[in-house]
Amino acid sequence: MIRLGVIFGGETVEHEVSIISAVQAMNKMDTEKYEVVPIYVTKDREWYTGDSLKDIDVYQDLELLKRYNKNVILYCKNGRFVLQSKGFFKRVVKEIDMIFPVVHGTNMEDGVLQGYLRSIGVPFVGCDVSSAAVSQDKIFQKQIFKDSNLPITDFVWFFDTEYLDDPESIIKKIEKLKYPVIVKPATLGSSIGISIANDKDMLEKSIEDAINYDNKIVVEEVVENLTEVNISVLGNYEHINLSEIEQVMSDNDLLTYEDKYIGSSKKTPGTSKGMASAVRKIPADISEKLKEEIREIATEAFRVLNASGVVRIDFLIDKKKKKVYINEINSCPGSLAFYLWEPTGKDYSELLDDMINIAIKDYKKRVGKIHSFNSNILQGFSGSKGLKGIKK
Question: What pTM value is reported for the model?
């Protein structure tokens, strides 16, 4: 049986979204194959473990949660990956074989957590450091997609300090685009901090709001006659599988945080099913020709970012021009996009199995590569004289 540590939460504005996704996933994992070990990261970056963390109701009282679960750290101890209690009397609480991050947003999904897991050597599910970092940064994505000749909307990006120092210059650059435009913090997800501007006054307000969340801002032209569709991709650089395509439905001009996570639970707080509860049409009501184009673009985007596990790729379609644009890739999508795989005959438990098996294969390949040398060039080192001949 694989001892599977599921990490979620963290210091991110998508903290609660991560909890919803993780609890969903943990309750769908095959307990005959995996010993599921919840690892909850609080907003103040403390790590906790305990079986009660599999229950969504626990998170209504965080102080009670901390009292009845173990405060731990994860590290490598004598070749084993362990959760060790903190405090004066330290002890190993759990041994872990593999980590399954179900994380959203900055500090968790953006390569930061993945870098820590790589540094201690523990196998983990999903995108590696570089693909996670790029997938979290909308500007990096656009630059790579553009270089790969994938269709994107026209955009302008800038740092917060550039706008604060010379707002008119930035506004002038943006107004070379065509109103309306959409303003986004570069590294957030779940539609947080995103708004549409139809004129200069709205643009200034939108930028000021986005700056509250990020130091990099991207402004894009809004696609006219918009149909928004998503597809999920499963695999790695060797093997790629595609889900059904969904059409996202919203009463707003763009799919908001409320559409994604709150709408279904307004009357009964605490019952949100995350992205699985958003209003959608599956399969999308678009032509087979457009579907095939989306599949081709999604496959190439997944490959150029060297993604792994399950991602969701969002597309924008101009219905009148029948033009497809790739919008962004989500390296750890809300609800792990399981609802896009069910129409293909793959249930959530099977999807989780596939992700774990891909991670095992990726880990075996990675440890088979050369990462260090047995020789030690510092043996016999004697001050500055020892540096001669080492590197020229």
Answer: 0.88
